[in-house]
Design a protein that fits this description.
The chain has about 350 residues and is an alpha/beta fold. Helix content is about 30%, strand content about 20%. Strands 1-7-6-4-5 form a five-stranded mixed sheet, with helices on both faces. A four-stranded mixed sheet has the order 8-13-12-11, sandwiched between helices. Helix 5 links the parallel strand 4 and strand 5. The radius of gyration is 19 Å and the shape is globular. This is 3-oxoacyl-ACP synthase. Keywords: Acyltransferase, Transferase. One of its GO terms (molecular function) is 3-oxoacyl-[acyl-carrier-protein] synthase activity.
């Protein structure tokens, strides 16, 4: 065994509630300037978090597959917990402490990541790999909850907007160990701080998001911003994926499975074409789940493993970008097979 190796040995996921069809939004849709934009072509279905369902509730459900396959004691003895919650349940506080308590964990390290956005799982892999390789523990759990679709985008004042029908909710966890079972070959994380200001959260009439007042908050999209985000996403995701491949002597033909975040059909198609990966080797659940934000990569990976779309020994490349393009990351693993 390679004593320095760190492996992503398993993932499990959770989708809340029953699927919600596109016709749910059709009844509320109003004409707006972005209605026909390719960014906002609605998926056929998506899921919404329950009215009283918390991020810790979602992660607890997502962790059940790991518990069933590896035993509760493996979760309870995790040394490092890394979390990302799209919409924190209360201001100021990340979900890490509550998730650790809910799962019966007493980790020595708890990190709540926010800047990773839709690529948070990749960022978590990179951070966990560094910590475990440095001797900070033997196991790590990465927990991602996307819970904004049913809480932000389904508000009555936001629901009619073209952006509302695209997001879906879900959660996933990934278990890492110091082993060479499914080694993380490499990870590449890039920050583009110059684009951070392009992500805005607006109200009409204007106010700060935390101030009381009329008008629900929504993401501030414009045609100009969308054009820039499309250009950045189309470039960044293939760039980080290829960087990981090239450092490890791999070509796109060596990618057994490509797993990306899934903002819309346009990005999914463009990323496949840029990396010359056939559709059969790129996981796409957009029409089943919508845009799952940070939970998209681990949920799609769980789906692919469960449906035998990736075989032991194959290279899995995960890649995504966040927000308006202020972060992008990719990671590659050599999949060793799910424990029976």
């Amino acid at each position: 065994m390679d004593q320095s190796a760190v492996s992503l040995i398993d993932v499990s996921s959770y989708l809340p509630g029953e699927p919600i069809g596109a016709d749910y939004y059709t009844q509320y849709a109003e004409s707006d300037a972005l209605r026909d934009n390719l960014m906002f072509r609605a998926p056929r279905f998506r899921h919404h978090v329950g009215e009283d369902e918390t991020a810790a509730d979602m992660i607890e459900q997502a962790a059940q597959g790991i518990i069933e396959r590896h035993g509760r004691e493996v979760i309870e003895n995790v040394d490092i917990l890394i979390t990302h919650t799209q919409l924190p349940d209360i201001p100021f506080c990340g979900a890490g402490g509550g998730i650790a308590h809910r799962l019966g964990m007493r980790p020595s390290t708890v990190l709540d990541l926010h800047n990773g956005g839709c690529a948070a799982f990749v960022l978590g892999l990179g951070v966990a790999r560094q910590l475990l390789a440095a001797g900070a523990g033997q196991t790590a759990l990465i927990a991602i909850a996307q819970n904004a679709a049913g809480q932000v985008f389904d508000q009555p004042a936001v629901r009619p907007k073209s952006q509302a029908s695209v997001p879906g909710d879900g959660a996933a966890v990934g278990l890492l160990t110091r082993s060479d079972r499914s080694p993380i070959l490499d990870a590449e994380c890039r920050n583009y701080g110059q684009y951070a200001g392009d992500m805005t959260y607006n109200t009409d009439p204007p106010r700060k998001w935390w101030q009381p007042g009329p008008g629900a908050a929504y993401i501030g999209f414009t045609e100009d911003k969308i054009t820039k985000v499309l250009a950045r996403g189309n470039r960044q995701v293939p760039e980080v994926a290829l960087a990981v491949c090239h450092r490890n002597g791999l070509s796109p033909a060596d990618i057994g499975l490509l797993v990306t975040n899934q903002p819309n059909r346009v990005f999914l198609r463009n990323w496949r074409e840029a990396l010359e990966v056939p559709e059969s080797r790129h996981v796409d659940t957009f029409d089943e789940c919508g845009n799952l934000f940070g939970a998209g990569i681990p949920i799609n990976l769980d789906r692919a493993i469960t449906t035998n779309r990736v075989q032991p020994g194959e290279v899995v490349v995960m890649a995504g970008f966040a927000h308006a393009g202020d972060f992008a990351g990719a990671a590659a693993i050599r999949w060793g097979g799910r424990p029976q």
